[in-house]
Amino acid sequence: MPTTDEAVAQAALDTQTGPTSPTAADSGASASASFRSTEQYSSAGLTTDTARVDALARALLGAVHQVISDHEVTYPEFQAAKKWLMDVGEGGEWPLFLDVFVEHAVEEVAARKQTGTVGTILGPYYLPGQVQLTTPATLPARPDEAGTPLAFRGQVTDTTGAPVPGAVLDIWQADEQGYYSGFAPDIPAGNLRGVVTADVEGRFEIRTIQPAPYQVPTDGPTGALISAAGWHPWRPAHLHLLVSAPGRRTVTTQLYFAGGEYLDSDVAEAVKPELVLDPTDVGDGSREVTYDFVLEDA
Ligand code: BEZ
Ligand code: FE
Fold this sequence. Notes:
- By secondary structure, the protein is α/β, with parallel strands linked by helices.
- It has a single domain (24-34, 67-297), classed as Sandwich (Protocatechuate 3,4-Dioxygenase, subunit A), CATH 2.60.130.10.
- 31% of the residues lie in helices and 21% in strands.
- The strands form three sheets. Strands 1-5-4-9-10-11 form a six-stranded mixed sheet, with helices on one face.
- The chain starts with a helix and ends with a strand.
- It binds benzoic acid (BEZ) and fe (iii) ion (FE).
- Fe (iii) ion (FE) is lined by residues 123, 125, 214, 238, 240.
């Protein structure tokens, strides 16, 4: 028998239509559409602080000029770069490209002033407004969802160790093929996504499946660069989380899996050692793991 949460989650899957993107490259374009609908997009604009714009633009262009000089970049290479930059824009892949190759550096700067649970990149595949669940919760999944079942438990506390009642864990992940609902074809909207409210002691239990590694789409310009440079396009398997509570700074993070592929070579350079889970086998084919979150004051 499904629990009330499971019934709510299934109903959410039943009433939403799935994505129609037919190719891997479309996940980049979907990421652009998704970013356009966010508050961060609406509020983004060039700062009015001229000195700051001058400093950043001058430093950025200076770094580009230095690379051209050091590596004796030729006219054909310059034109190839122009074409590739146009392709990234026309393919809607700027959010994808920037989240793969640049976001980690911005996050590392932000982290210098943070305490509590270590954060990492958000990435382009967050979708707000997912089904609301209460602990113990089961993420919405297809009836035949493949993958090793995982029970993910823990407690949310403040920096003194006091429980944070009713903390909220917004969680999303790829499936056992490494695909995200909302960005890949044939996966119901809301699959393996949910917003879980913890109990009065900040404790939570979330039942899901262990995700697979994620591959940056190889058929668009971001993938073309990765392949032209001889890199690999993989991120290690991970769970995404936004952990929040009133009066606390929201932690944006990801949890990885010990022993998993690409932990040491994440294309997005977002793995941190504090964020690696080591689930234990329960004996019935499923796994379980505990991870506690610490939220600092806002
Ligand atoms: C991800 O976490 O899934 C992700 C991060 C950066 C770029 C693409 C995907
Ligand atoms: Fe991800």
